[in-house]
């Protein structure tokens, strides 16, 4: 029996997921297809119904539907519950179950490098869609504290409140007030969209060194200005594409119940960026 999977969102043309999953199917000779399906904001309910009609086996959820999709799930796992958003869904005879692979996807590159974040001080830039999953990841791995830097304090304060609630000590600062304090942190994560259009780094990285872990979740371009500046300081670098791969391999394992072919998926992804 052939199986069909999809990614839903808007915009969707730039999604690399079809390439990544198709490469995995080819590698393991699976009779499966993966499509990108545009569902505009406000049309999610109809979109989900049409996916059920074609008996889709599973789908990924991206912007702008990750929070609203929670309403249309019959069940969800603990990560969805904590983060309040879903990005991977299984369809078992019309019963939709949601998962959030953002947290594990985010943590995956740390694990692959054997880097522990236990007791480390974290600076998170941005308080948007990925922030809660990232905070949940650092809480799970027992980081010492997190500072959330954002343009507006309101969003940062919401994420900080969430962080404190799940046991990770958090405070907030405006992004332009970070100035030369980057050196006070062990891990610095860019979760803003700054870098997508080759903008210069959102903060100064003066004073960081080879012990600092610098992670940019922007994956196109691979080398953002933020990461280039971190490399000049010989910091440990984690690329955005690694998080994307971490999420994709988790989704693959949820749907197929077998280990994902990481290297084949990585090759397809890097060919696409």
Describe this protein's structure.
By secondary structure, the protein is of the alpha/beta class. It folds into 2 domains: 3-100 and 243-272, Rossmann fold, CATH 3.40.50; 104-238, 3-Layer(aba) Sandwich (Rossmann fold). It has 9 helices and 12 strands. It has helices at residues 17-27, 44-53, 78-83, 102-112, 131-140, 153-165, 225-232, 240-256, 262-272; strands spanning 3-9, 32-38, 58-61, 75-76, 88-92, 95-99, 121-125, 145-150, 169-174, 187-190, 213-216, 236-238. The strands form 2 sheets. The chain has a 6-stranded mixed beta sheet with strand order 2-1-3-5-6-4. It has a 6-stranded parallel beta sheet with strand order 9-8-7-10-11-12, sandwiched between helices. β7, α5 and β8 (145-150) form a beta-alpha-beta unit.
Overall 3D form: globular
> Which strand-content bin applies to the residues?
15-25%
What's the CATH class label of the largest domain? Alpha Beta
Q: Could you give a short account of the major beta sheet?
A: 6 strands, mixed
List keywords for this structure.
single chain, 273 residues, alpha/beta, Rossmann fold, six-stranded mixed sheet, six-stranded parallel sheet, 12 strands
How would you concisely characterize the structure shown here?
The protein is of the alpha/beta class and 273 residues long. The chain has helices at 17-27, 44-53, 78-83, 102-112, 131-140, 153-165, 225-232, 240-256, 262-272; strands spanning 3-9, 32-38, 58-61, 75-76, 88-92, 95-99, 121-125, 145-150, 169-174, 187-190, 213-216, 236-238. It is 36% helix and 21% strand.
């Amino acid at each position: 029996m052939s199986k069909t999977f999809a990614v839903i969102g808007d915009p969707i043309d730039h999604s690399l997921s079809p390439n990544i999953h198709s490469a995995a199917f080819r590698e393991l000779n699976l009779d499966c297809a993966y499509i990108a399906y545009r569902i505009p904001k406000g049309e999610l309910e109809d979109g989900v119904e049409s996916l059920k009609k074609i008996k889709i086996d599973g789908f990924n959820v991206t912007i702008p539907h990750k929070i609203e999709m929670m309403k249309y799930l019959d069940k969800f796992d603990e990560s969805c519950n904590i983060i309040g958003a879903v990005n991977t869904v299984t369809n078992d005879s019309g019963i939709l179950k949601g998962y959030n692979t953002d947290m594990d996807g985010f943590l995956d590159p740390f694990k692959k490098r054997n880097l522990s974040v236990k007791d480390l001080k974290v600076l998170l830039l941005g308080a948007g869609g990925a922030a809660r999953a990232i905070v949940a990841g650092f809480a799970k791995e027992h980081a010492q504290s997190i500072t959330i830097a954002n343009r507006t304090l309101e969003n940062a304060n919401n994420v900080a409140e969430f962080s404190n609630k799940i046991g990770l000590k958090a405070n907030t600062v405006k992004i332009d007030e970070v100035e030369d304090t980057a050196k006070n942190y062990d891990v610095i994560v860019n979760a803003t969209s700054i870098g997508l259009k080759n903008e210069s780094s959102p903060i100064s990285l003066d004073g960081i060194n080879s012990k600092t872990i610098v992670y940019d979740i922007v994956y196109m371009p691979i080398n953002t200005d933020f990461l280039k500046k971190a490399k000049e300081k010989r910091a440990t670098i984690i690329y955005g594409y690694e998080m994307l791969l971490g999420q994709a391999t988790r989704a693959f394992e949820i749907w197929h119940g077998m280990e994902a072919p990481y290297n084949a998926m990585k090759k397809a992804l890097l060919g696409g960026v």
